[in-house]
From TrEMBL:
InterPro entries the UniProt entry points to: cNMP-bd_dom, Extradiol_RC_dioxygenase, Glyas_Bleomycin-R_OHBP_Dase, Glyas_Fos-R_dOase_dom, VOC_core
Domain (Cyclic nucleotide-binding) ranges: 77-122
VOC domain sequence ranges: 7-132, 152-270
UniProt lineage: Bacteria, Pseudomonadati, Pseudomonadota, Alphaproteobacteria, Rhodobacterales
Protein name: Glyoxalase family protein
């Protein structure tokens, strides 16, 4: 069993419009845009990162907004809902705030004894806010007060036809089975960061998901550094998983592999962080390009649509 993985690092999804995506996360949810860069493989597409003040691992939601991308179809083999942590007692305030912005499909529920606010993002993305005793310091942007501010990730909900093999994988990765609520089984990594929870929802009769705008592309798990990452990679290879070589993503190093249930997993380092090329006070303001795309700067700055007025 691995001990290097400490919980979620980031969640990356697909969107259809960069400006709409940026407005939703910064103006509605009150997160900070901590990096404005481009997709390594498609530099004419933004890669946007939202999180707390510094983009602490376990707080960062990232997006590839492909212009006019078709909406994904929900189903199994995907992360169906990304869940953020909010303070105990803040759910009612969030229902009111989301209603003011006419956010789609707002509802409340209770799972594992936790109060949840469910809602959809601009592309039908599934989100929830969960009340929890979370002491992380929120970013308080766009009029979101500290008493209701998002603390970071709480968990992700994976939808699977059969959860057995994915449960075994999570346990190999250091997660422990904590509880079951209906067809959902909860796993928590002990001694991890505050984004330490994964829920597996078993839906044997559901169709397979099709990725598109509103779909989660992958979820990333946090390790402290490159040495711990290489240990994880070697262990996964020894277990039979097809794992990519280490890839430098400028703000972290990444490896990727596909899970038995079809979800793409990444293991990302906490180093070097989002302040490696920008002062903390100005994170997310300038367009930052990977070195291999710097020669395209003039072209990309003319092509990529402004995110704000």
């Amino acid at each position: 069993m691995l001990t290097q993985i400490k919980g979620l690092h980031h969640v990356t999804s697909l969107a259809s419009d960069a400006r709409m995506n940026n407005a939703f996360f910064t103006n509605v949810l009150g997160l900070r845009r901590v990096k404005k860069t481009v997709n390594f493989d498609a530099p004419d597409v933004y890669h946007l990162y939202y999180g707390d003040e510094t983009g602490t691992p376990g707080t960062v939601m990232t997006y590839f907004p492909f212009p006019h991308a078709a909406r994904g179809r929900q189903g199994v083999g995907e992360v169906g809902r990304t869940v953020f942590s909010i303070p105990t007692g803040a759910a009612r305030m969030w229902v009111d705030r989301l209603s003011t912005f006419e956010v789609a499909n707002i509802s409340t529920s209770n799972k594992f004894g936790e109060t949840r606010v469910l809602f959809d993002g601009p592309d039908g993305d599934g989100f929830a806010l969960v009340e929890s005793d979370d002491n992380r310091t929120p970013w308080t942007g766009a009029g979101v007060s500290e008493e209701m501010g998002i603390r970071g990730f709480h968990s992700t909900d994976m939808r699977l036809k059969n959860a057995g093999a994915s449960a075994e994988l999570l346990q190999f990765m250091g997660y422990e089975r904590q509880d079951t609520d209906g067809n959902v089984t909860r796993f928590i990594v002990p001694g991890g960061n505050d984004a330490n929870t994964i829920d597996l929802e078993e839906l044997p009769d559901a169709p397979f998901a099709t990725q598109g705008a509103g779909s989660v592309h992958h979820i990333a798990f946090a390790v402290e550094n490159r040495a711990r990452q290489l240990e994880v990679r070697e262990a996964l290879l020894d277990t039979g998983y097809q794992v990519t070589p280490v890839i430098d993503r400028d703000y972290f190093y990444a490896i990727y592999f596909r899970t038995p249930g079809g979800v793409l997993f990444e293991v990302a380092t906490n180093e070097p962080g989002f302040d490696r090329d920008e002062d903390t006070a100005h994170l997310g303001e300038a367009l930052k390009l990977p070195s291999q795309h710097e020669h395209l700067r003039a072209k990309l700055e003319g092509y990529l649509a402004p995110l704000e007025d």
